[in-house]
Write a structure and sequence with these properties.
The chain is mainly beta. Helix content is 0%, strand content 25%.
Length: 61
Amino acid sequence: MADVDEEVTKILTVSGPPEGGTRVTIHGVNLGLDFSEIAHHVQVAGVPCTPLPGEYIIAEQ
């Protein structure tokens, strides 16, 4: 099986306060087939983020 690279294609909400708390939506390719695959691996600008399980949607195409 060939390795498949993840690719972020769109980020909605491009700025927020330095203290955090801003909801960010990330669209991409091959980011994970299940929430558990991304649960502890999301960073924006090097800052760890907390993904929301109820907001995670797997690819439809």
